[in-house]
Amino acid sequence: MGGLEHATPGVLVLLAFAGWMLFRQLTRANNGHRHFIRRIPGIDAIESAVGRCAEQGRPVVFTTALTDVGPVLFACLGVLHSIAKRAAQYKLKLLIPQYSPEAMAIVEDTVREAYRAAGRANAFDPQSIVFLSSEQFAFASGYMGLVHRERAGAAFMFGVFAAEALVLAEAGQQVGARQVAASVSPEQVAFFICTCDYTLIGEELFSASAYMSREPVQVAALAAQDRVKLLFGALVICGVLCATAAQFYPVLKELMPHRLLVADWSAWLAWLLSPFVWS
Amino acid sequence: MELRRSIMDRRATFIRIVTLLGGVYFFLHFLLPESALVALGVHERHESITNGFIVVGSMALGLGLINLVMGHGGKLVFKRPGWGNSLALLVALVSMLVITFGQWMNGLSSSYDIRQVQLIGEFANRIIDDEQDPARRTVVPPLIERVVALTRYTRAKLDSITEAPVAGNSSSSNEAHTALAVELQSAAVTLREPLEKVQGVDFSTLTEANKAILGEFVDRANRLGGAYSALRQSDQSLTLFSRLHEVIYDGLFVQLGAAMFSLLGVYIAAAAYRAFRVRTLESALMMTAAVVVMLGQISAVFLMLNLGSFGEDAYTVLPKVRQWLLEVPNSAAFRAIRLGAGVAGLMLAIRMWLSIESKSFGANAKR
Fold this sequence. Notes:
- The complex is a heterodimer of chains A (279) and B (367).
- With 279 residues, chain A is an alpha/beta fold.
- Helix content of chain A is 59%, strand content 11%.
- Chain B has 13 helices and no strands.
- Chain B has helices spanning 2-31, 34-40, 43-77, 83-132, 134-137, 143-163, 165-168, 175-200, 208-237, 240-275, 281-297, 300-304, 309-353.
């Protein structure tokens, strides 16, 4: 089976379930239900790393590296907001080297808002958001230089990373910075585990913001995503069992549930949409 | 203050509506099969819509440029620590802007000149096509007038090519360039022969004989167009701007990037050393798996070492174990990470689409 060029009825059902689950959890949160979040040491370490910077008088560096505008960036912004708020409270220097100019404008807005929330709007310095380069290794060398020059006390690397991940992490390691990394790129997670003090793997990046802020909307979304993941897990197990059973009883191949997921509905849709076709 | 708040509220509402509509469009685009999109007439408009995002991206690049100039310009003006680096950066920035602009202008001029020559063959071809199509023949000028215009234009171009500085560049020490200039002169000479034939024949109607003469003219004109294009492109690569671009970008920037990449070799070794210190059960497991994968990659060594049946067994078994480690537990972990991140991304995307915002970056927090 190749990749999906468009959604099928099965995908639509899964998307509808995800949307329904999100609204259900939001409603529950709105009614006062408190969702449980397990302890994640890597996220706890973020606060202690910022506190350590305050003690040492060293700056905090936060980068979203190659992350472009999209869900991953918005997940990173939640964490950045919390870190920037603390940095503002502790009067710390916060540096945010940037790779993507599109993301830079959004990042600046988030940091400004965090300073305002901390009651120190005047302390916000737009120059703390430094555009380095849109070239991967030019960005990496700029980041290395920045971390070395400023002798960062803590470095947070959140988002999408590629080959430059180890270069960035080693720069922080060399100046003795407390480092927390979070990546949705599984290939780079191994490098971060070797080099950083704490590493958040995959979805933990998305949960970090909810964990730090405990805002009902974010926590409810976290609970919803866990339930959707349970459904996906159940589908995977169901698929494995069905495929195994089909090895012994070939007639079952025709009843495989994945057929619903990949079934084409072009003809049915064409009939449904025929009154609206633009001539 | 009230007015400002009202403006901010309206702005937030506007953004929410645009986000929702944009989301609906892309959701439907993903949802509907291509046949339905074609039937609805959306398919051919989709490219224009996605081009809008490229425009936004190019505007954002300007933001990056402004940030660089403001940050480093301020350092330079107030002579803050590190102003020398800022000066180097700004000089490099301006130099690259000027060089790239100069190169672009040269490219534009070359493209225009090349097109002028390539038009000869295309025009001759068009004359034949139009004459063979009764519908088009009635709406174009008479054949004889078009042939006269073609010959006049071709003669003028051939004269300019023979006398132009392009041909004079053959004195360059670049042998390839000289060969291209010779090829161009040869193509110009060979085109003159069918040109004379075209001028000497009556073109009041398109006979088979006339068509054959024009066909030969088209072939030679196309050869001239190809030779002229090759020479002008070679000319362009020899200009000052191109050479500066080559030195600064290809010779310096790309090589520095490669140097940064090569640092990874050292860093991987350092990271591996830290990772392979066996302190816990997990790190012991990781080290064992890593050693098996590495040995599986170079299992032929066991044969070379003449270890007898152990060497042969290791040569056979280790690659299989390595393959299993990479394809089964490793792939399973990768898929689990991707699935988890995908679901989390989906939830966040739904939240952003429907503007179910938290206070972190929502409009409510700005009050």
